[in-house]
Design brief:
With 123 residues, this protein is mainly alpha-helical. It contains six helices and two strands.
């Protein structure tokens, strides 16, 4: 038996983290909420390039996972805000680490992509 055999089965806890990281918008929304609660319109404006539908789906997914809480206020008109939970705030640590990795090594990834595309176009 190898050192890592069986560690990534369907119910493995590491898969939870990988699933959260692989969704395009999860980290963006979590990071955008790092400074405090926001209304959906302000959140969309801060992020840019996200449709209202995708933002709603992402917020619901993050709420389902316990990372974001939805706060409703009984006002006229009704007001809704989203905020990170303690669990969501804890996810900022690995997201920031990935951001630091991207700053240091992102140029190498982009160069590899450019080289692969150039090779595909000449071959």
């Amino acid at each position: 038996m190898t050192e890592h055999e069986g560690e990534y089965v369907a119910d493995c806890r590491a898969r939870v983290a990988f699933d959260l990281l692989t969704n395009r918008w999860n980290s963006v929304v979590v990071y955008a909420l790092a400074d405090g609660p926001m209304r959906p319109g302000a959140l969309a404006a801060r992020i840019g390039g996200i449709s209202a539908k995708v933002l709603t789906e992402t917020l619901r997914r993050l709420e389902y996972h316990g990372l974001v809480e939805r706060r409703t206020y009984a006002e006229a008109p009704p007001r809704v805000e989203y905020a990170l939970t303690d669990l969501g705030e804890s996810l900022l640590v690995p997201f920031r680490a990935l951001g630091a990795w991207s700053l240091e090594y992102g140029h190498r990834v982009l160069a590899a992509q450019d080289a692969a595309e150039a090779a595909a176009n000449t071959g």
